[in-house]
Amino acid sequence: MDFQRRRQGSRGLLAVAAALVAWAGVHAGEVRAAPLTPPQQPPELPLEQLTVAALPAPDAYRLYLSDPTMGHLVDGRLHVIDARGMRYLGLLGTGFAGSSTLSRDRQSILVASTYHSRLQRGTRSDVVEVYGTKDLAFQYEIEIPAKHVQSLPMRTLMGTSNDGRFLFIQNATPATSVSVVDLHARKFVEEIPTPGCYGAIAWPDQARRFSSVCGDGRLATFELDEQGVLKQRSVSEPFFDPDKDPIFAHYQWSGSRLTFVSYRGQVHELDLRGTAPVALKPWGLTDAAAAKQGWRPGGYQLFALDSRSGRLYVGMHDKGSEGSHKNPAKEIWVFDSQTQRRIGRLPGQGAIGMALSHEDKPSLFVLSAMENRLLSFALSERPPLARLLHRSEPVGETPVYMEMQ
Fold first, then answer.
1. Which backbone phi and psi does 131 adopt, to 5 degrees?
2. Closest to 234 measured CA to CA, from 197, 269, 181
3. Taking the C-alpha atoms of 247, 249, 253 and 256 in order, what is their torsion angle to the nearest 10 degrees?
4. Which of 15, 79, 351, 395 has the greatest number of C-beta atoms within 10 Å?
C-alpha cells in the first residue's frame, strides 16, 4: 500500500518535471528563434578643425607680467594680459631667469635668457629671443655671451637705445659687464666691463649712451660709437651714500630726469639733459611723525611716476627695519613731485609692484603679493585720488615685474 502510493507520487513528480522541461524548451525555442538586431552605429563625427584666434591689437592696456616661476626656474614665463578687463591673452616662455623688455617701437618683445642642453645642466647657451607683440609669434634669436645675469626680472637689467638699434644687457659672472646687441644687424657687438657698477640704463635723449649705478654711490656713463663699440667712459660725483641709505635698483623717467628711491625714503633725481648727469637735491617721503613710526618704501617695482601730472606713487610699510625693503605695501602714498609734498594715502593692497598705462589719463596697475592678483585703478585729481576698477584672478606663480604696452 505504502509502496504503491510512493509509485503514484513519483509518477506525479515526473509529470510535473516533464511539463517544466517542455515549457522551458518551448520558451527557449522562442528565444532562440528571435532574430538578433545588430547595434546601431553612431554617425561619424566630423574632423575637428584647429584655428588660432587673433589677439586684439596691442594698446595702452596691454600688460606684460614677468614670472620667474621660483619653484622651477628653468621654466620662466611672461604672461600677457588685457588689463582693461583683466582678460588673459597668452604667455611666452622665458627660460632660466630670463629678462624681457619691449622694443622702442613697441612692436617686439625682447627676451634675454639662458638655456642648458639638459634643462638644468649641460652646455649653456645665452640668447636674445624676439617675439612680435601683434601675435606673440617667435621671430628670431641672437646669440650672446653666456654671461647674462640670472636674477629676478627688473627694469635695470635691460635697456634699448633711444633710436631702437642697440640692446644693452646686464651680465654677472659675478664680474659685472654689459653686452651690446645690434638689433638691426641681429648680432652681438661687444661686451663692456662695468666693474663695481650694475645696471643698463639707456639715456632717453642719447642714442649711444647708457649708465650703471656704482657701489660707491656714483653713476658711470658709457658712450658708444656708431657701431656700438665703447668710445668713452665717465663717472659722476656720488649722489647717494650706499653705506647709510642705498637706493633701489628700480627707476623711473620724467622726460630726461632719472628718479630713484632709497631704502629710507629719500627721492634722488638726476638731470640727464647735458653731457653729464647732474644730481638734484634729494627730498624725503616721510615727515618726522612718519619717520618715528618707521614708514619706509618697500617692494620690487615699488614706485610709479606720471611724467604728465608729476604724481609719484610709492608702496610704503610701517615699522621698517634693516632688511624690510622688499616688504609689500601697507599703503600707497601719493606725492606731487613738483611740490615734493604728499597729497594722499591709499590702501596698499599688499603691492610689490605698480605701473601706469601710457595714455593722457593713465590708469594705475598694482601687483598684489597676497594672491598674485592684478588690480587696476582710475585716477582722479581729487580725493580719493584712485578708484578700484578691476581685480584679476590669480596670475602665475611668482610674478614680480610689469611692463605696459
1. -125, 155
2. 197
3. 70
4. 351
Task: Give residue for cell 661686451.
Answer: 191
Helix runs in 162-296, H state only: 288-292
pLDDT tens digits for 140-155?
Answer: 999 999 999 999 999 9
Rg of the chain in Å (alpha carbons): 34
Question: What span, in angstroms and rounded, lies between the C-alpha atoms of 239 and 352?
Answer: 26
**Burial track 20-34 (b if 16+ CB lie within 10 A, e otherwise):** eeeeeeeeeeeeeee
Q: How far apart are CA 248 and CA 301, in angstroms?
A: 9
Q: Is the pLDDT of residue 224 over 60?
A: yes
Percent of the chain past pLDDT 70, that is, above it, reads: 91
pLDDT higher than threshold 90 for residue 2 = no
| Distance of alpha carbon 249 from alpha carbon 400, whole angstroms | 14
**Can you give the pTM of this predicted structure?**
0.87
> Which residue in this structure is represented by grid cell 615699488?
302
* Distance in angstroms (rounded) separating the CA atoms of residues 21 and 320: 97
Instruction: Output the pLDDT for position 35.
Output: 66
Torsion of CA 103, 107, 112, 116, to 10 degrees: -170
The one-letter amino acid code at 331 reads E
Residues 188, 203 contacting (CB under 8 angstroms): no
Question: Cβ contacts of residue 164 below 8 Å, gap of 6+?
Answer: 103, 104, 105, 183
DSSP string spanning 239-250? Answer: -S-TTTS-B-S-
Q: How confident is the model at residue 360 (pLDDT cuts 50, 70, 90)?
A: confident
